[in-house]
## 1
Amino acid sequence: MDHLPPLRLLTTFEAVARLGAMRDAAAELNVTGPAVTQALKALEDHVGTTLLDRSTRPARLTESGQQLARATRDGLDMIARTIEEIRAGAGEQSLTVSCTLGMATYWLMPRLSDFYARHPEILVNVQAPPTDLPAISAGIDLALRYGTGAWTDGETTKLFDEIVCPVGQPALVERLLAESIGLNNAPLIHVRSPKTHHWAGWPDYFKHRGLGRHSGSGQFFDNYVQAVQAALNGRGLVLGWRSITEAFVAEGALVSWPDGAVDLGTGYHATLSPAGARKSATQLFLTWLEQHSQ
């Protein structure tokens, strides 16, 4: 086995090949961009040939790179599948779910006790990567994703439509309406980071509603958990998504802006990896997700 490169180099290369960009791979692996660049160079030195054509933007796999990408993907998938088979043989049924921090905090975890009540023999591992589009990578059985559902890396099932609507603390919304302050001048809470580019922001919402430009105050956070907490504290309005703020609106901690709901044609989906689709535990979890998405 001395001719094999370190596993770290192969997992980094697999992420770059699958995601198509070093920046996205760095975000998924929670490492820096230079670390990804160094790992790829080390792998090319080990293999003895160029794996990426860096004359294009973004860089593309060479023929040798495509060949190694297929072998790496199959190899890592086989390792993950074998580990799961070993676990199952030891009497433990488990699956690993990947989703955003907001989805895990506000939608999945509050409901997960019901799944355990129905299936106490199954262990659910939840991973929340820094990117807002969880990937089907080695060891992931199911990914919960926001978007249009046009993914080709696994079997995808739509769970529910995702409607966006501004929400805020009841007292704040009441005051803004009483003072005839519209969204253009209301204090807004933004979520902005390189890892949240798949979700619509306030500029997208304003454009969709034809509201022009915002001229009020604003606060910026790098994830929806922080943003929602700021909204609960009355710091401003945040774009509310069903998967994140639905429970707060239902209990009255947040209220929706009147006639503010917008359907962007997107939804939440569950994508099963090829290995996960073969596991009974994953299929049971998908059925449970569908029941809780009605």
## 2
Amino acid sequence: MPQTLKIDFVSDISCPWCAIGLLSLQRAAAALQGAVVLDLHFQPFELNPAMAPEGQDMGEHLQEKYGASPEQSQRTREAIVARGAALGFTFRMDQRSRIYNTFDAHRLLHWAGEEGRQLALKQALFKAYFTEGENPGNHEVLVRLAREVGLDADAARDVLASDRCADEVREREQFYQRQGIHSVPAVIVNDRHLIQGGQPPEVFEQALRQIATEK
């Protein structure tokens, strides 16, 4: 009988290591098929909650926030591209020239969780931003992605046009910050075990296997 593990995956859409972490977690779960089943919940975290709607140039943002030189940024980009490729995901850095506000995307993700399509929307958001270079704060992009993963487009548009799910998203963000989560991805298993960062699949596999055997 497979052991069901509750996973709270705390992440932001604009975080490439979050995309890598999710892919690694899924590969680990596939390797443990028959022994482990993931009960996956995506929790919101905004790397740039004050980001303006029009976004900011990526190079300018990285230099301002992290003090990263162009050379350092290039090495990081190369590492991200290689990790993604190893997991079957395409990071198109030439397409992703700006970083955007992600609050409305988190609101839509919260709603998608209520509709049972959260994972599909999360995956679509990662692809739209990191592969296609689209703006995850643009409502038309969000509505289109919702429709593509089987959600009702009119209902999605209504969510985005209102402040629906805003309080819930802010409450969840504040909750995890109070728990000491200040960087993402943060993978919390069974409300007790923290796996931090975009770890390789084998690290997730070992951790999940160990947790699943606990009484």
## 3
Amino acid sequence: MSKGFFITFEGIEGCGKTTQARLLAEYIQNGGRRVVLTREPGGTAIGKRIREILLDPESKGIDSRAELLLYFADRAQHVAEVIEPALADGAVVICDRFADATAAYQGFGRGVDLELVADLNNTATNGLTPDFTLLMDLPVVEGLRRARIRNGDINHAREGRFEEEPDEFHEKVRQGYLTIASCETDRFKIIDASGTPEEVQAAIRKTLPSPFNVRG
């Protein structure tokens, strides 16, 4: 059996990571590997209910500690139910956001202690870390413009809580992501997300490690 491989996509609102994760999943699957495409929050039935709370604009009064713990509850269930079993079965797991998102949004963005975030994340994931992370980088103004257009769609109408945060918050998140990536250059690849979906996907494919067989 091939060894599992864990790829994560990260980035600010509107950076296109969801589209790019789907395109990469199709590309790898067409190459003959089994792929599990998932997301956070909301990668499980329980997680979908947590996602509704976290992203609903009506939840704007949520305490930062409650927000943090809800993300970790989602992640603990996701790792146990979806990610670890898929990796054990040899799949390539592609996840739209994972632990780095919590460090960027709740740590750098909200100002929650980063050591606390790291400790809780280690508990939620059983120490699982991605093999490879793609950071979709985009200026905040452009990302929010794209995200707010997307949220006008009925399917995303109840998921706009973070887009209502001020630009300063999103700039902290973006700089947080870049800081994290600079500390883990072996795992991260920073992708310019300003091009067309086809251009961005082509850039992503050029960065892929090959073969996907590093996980024991």
## 4
Amino acid sequence: MMESAIPLHLETTRSRHKRVPSDYVPPYPSFVARYKPAVNRVVMAYFGLQYRGAAPAAVAGALARIAERFAAADGPSYWDRAQYVDQAGFSNVISVGYWSDVASFDAWLGPAREDWTGKDCEGVGTFIEALRPTVGRFETLFSSLGRPEGVAVIGDGMSGEVQEHAYWGGMRDRIPLSQTDEMAPGGRPELVRHGARLIVKAHDNLCLIRSGQDWSDTEASERKLYLEDVEPVLHEGMDFLRDEGVGIGCYANRYMRVLDADGAPTEKSYGQSWWKSLAALERWAESHPTHVRIFGAAMKYLSTLGPAARLRLYHEVTVAAAEEQFFEYLNCHPKTGMLAAVETVGA
């Protein structure tokens, strides 16, 4: 039986309607993460470092320290690490932790923050970008069962087949708050200087997406099709958002390769980007030539392979209230993450 992406305990009387009729049946199955009803808020915290050229000696030490802190009391239930090269040519390595207990995160953050952005790290910039949304403010979507990623790993399991996907507007319809709220952005990003640290106060209803690809299960012919026909088009779209996204409401975009425990690249990647609004993300997805090409390449790939496709796709989308956000940067270049949303960083 088809389920709603919105869990029963978060369903409410709608004042805003879904984009599809109640008898809509999607053309292929997809699934969402489920959380225990007692979980009313989660944390997704990105701890990044950046450097230009060869990695300074301080990089290995910093990565080891944050991994150690993640493993300590009150650390995240799950974390992973990825890397990419940004639009200014800096290498960035980002360790992302997920918590389902905000009190644990709060107890853990103080010392971790002081260690990460509270002191100069020779030749290395550091930053923290964290959200603590209520469960009504984010959604997930998976093309297959059995291997949760990101915030879904800290869930209580996965749903059955859900209705709200495979149409424009499904992303919004999966967010419980969308039943009653337009989730329009409010306010402008501001910069606050705290000694050497730069803190960005963003705005209400800022949007975060993490959208991932896992080709580790593909056989030779499917892998060739993905890496030659789909990934280059995806890469082109991700580069557009990285280099020119601000003009369409994307403050920052990172197309990252997930790393294994030894720091080697895996056969997983994800795009992670900050958007002025969910509406801006929707407009890019629905109509921008770069995403139209990504969508076309993906549809051709999936229609060629059908149910035999072994590529795994997922995403998580959050629309965070102003008080649920935290952005802090030390010795980072002016276009790093949400610093790109503020025009006076260099002043």
